[in-house]
Amino acid sequence: MCHLQSGKPSGLQETLAAWSGAEAEAKVFMVGGVSYFSGSADDSGAKTFSLVDGTIPGMRKAFICLVVLDSDELTITPGSVGVKLDGSTANSTVVMETALDFTVLEWSGLISTAQWNTVAQVGPA
Asked: What is the pTM of this model?
């Protein structure tokens, strides 16, 4: 089943289930859509992922953590840093480690100062 966001461009979905070998390398997400993390809490080591710049103004990218990751958090680094929900804190990383942590980022456009800004969030730092 595919869970799409309604309204602005959203893309499709991807599910990242196997953490094996992911500890020492950065993974790149698809641009737009929803990325679900369903790895096991038994998988060791922190995970790092990179989000490349958007392609359409208003494009949204959602991240949902489906399992508790204990002390082995998942760190997402946007390519172009925007702001968090408070409107002023730099959105340099999103850290998720609890089941149902949820973040939605929106690409601000195609100009030289375009960035990923947080538009919705539950749980992550």
From this structure: 0.79
> How confident is the model over 78-122, as pLDDT tens digits?
888 888 888 888 888 888 888 888 999 999 887 778 899 999 998
The tokens of 97 are what?
């480690």
Which amino acid appears at position 78 of this protein?
A: P
User: Which residues is 104 bridged to in the sheet?
Assistant: 62, 120
Asked if residue 91 lies in contact with residue 105, where contact means CB atoms within 8 angstroms, the answer is: yes
CATH 2.60.120 fits 13-122, yes or no: yes
| Of 112, 106, 117, residue with least CA distance to 81 | 117
CA dihedral 25, 105, 43, 26 (to 10 degrees): 0
CA distance 3 to 12: 7
**Residue showing tokens 């959602």:** 62
Cα separation, 73 vs 67, whole angstroms = 11
Rounded to whole angstroms, what are the CA distances from 39 to 20, 43, 62? 9, 7, 17
Element (H, E) at 40: none
